[in-house]
Amino acid sequence: MDPQTLTELLDVAVLDRLDRIDDLAGDELARSTALRKEGYSAEVTAALLTQARLRQEAGAKLGPFAEDMLFTRDGLAQATRLPVAAHHARRLIGDVAEGESLRIADLGCGIGADSVAFAGMGAQVSAVDADEVTAAIAAFNLRHLPEATVGHARAEDVDLDGFDALWLDPARRTVGEADKRGSTARITDPEAFSPSLSWVIEQASAAKAAGVKLGPALDHDLVPEGAEAQWVSHNGEVVEVCLYFGAAMQRLGRGALVMGERTLLVHEDDLPDEDEAGIGELGKYLLEPDGAIVRAGLVAALCAPLQARRLHPKIAYLTTDVEPSGPAAAGVTAYEVIDVLPAKVPSLRKELVSRGIGSVVIKKRGADIVPDQVRRQLKLPKGDTATLVFTRLGDKHVVLLTQPV
Fold this sequence. Notes:
There is one protein chain. The chain is an alpha/beta fold. The chain contains 13 helices and 16 strands. The strands form two sheets. A nine-stranded mixed sheet has the order 3-2-1-4-5-7-6-8-9, sandwiched between helices. A seven-stranded mixed sheet has the order 11-12-10-13-16-15-14. β14, α13 (371-378) and β15 (384-393) form a beta-alpha-beta unit. The longest helix has 21 residues, at 42-62.
């Protein structure tokens, strides 16, 4: 969206039309035609329909707040989910005495999801974004929170003196031509982030308290000494890794936070000694660790609490003879192993058909397959549903026939 279109969208009457967009019947074309007949330009009509779609999509991340917000496609893609933003706020703000208020600089605020959480917990927030349109949208989204201000500026140009805490979320997408969905490409070189990762870490290291939000694919070698790195998943999806510094840090080193119906914290201090992280035979249950635990390199930390062992030293599956229970069970998805089947498609198909299986969910680790391609090759008749796990037992490629526990 260009600045001129955003200016028109922010008109009170146009925003009121956005809030009543569901009054329009029909598909997208019919809605567009109706809006043009009401006198809206092609640009504003497109913006209204886009915002309506984005608000609907944003509900999964931001709950009812989404109904009163504006978005960009990239801004929504990178926005922090509401429960995760609340976690950030608790980490950064901590225990504040009654009557006190922290000053937080949100550098690279995007559409303002984290700033909403910070200000909602009573912090005084100064947020900036280097993109003019994104900064204006963040200001709109934070308009009900007098503790928050938003400016259009580069993070590198902000005077950081006087702040109690910093929150840094460097841009990790290109600025340029978008794809057909309106999204731009991801940047893989940390020094090409905006601002660069080295600048971000330098500022965070010098702050009283700081948090840095990054993509979960961050290489462990990029985690600086003296920081805490926490990979986070929410409802089974790995959403980020955050680096914490100073007073925001709780435990030095790598950790994983699993958020959902149950919460689990795992840390590298929980890892067993190398000679205790055993590799063993396939048991009654196959355990698939949560993605945050896998990304953090902490799979072996689940072995002792789940009475489990690893199937292979380089594959992130565990196995056990007892059904998972206790707090650590929140860190895995469990499958009961029904049988071990051959990995070759013709033999596998024969085995599945003989069991009356006609629909399969395919998972893989340590196997060079394309699940959709295998599913087409199987050409199964109608039948029951099963979960197939393509993996390795020792040097042998196998398929585990399983069912979720």
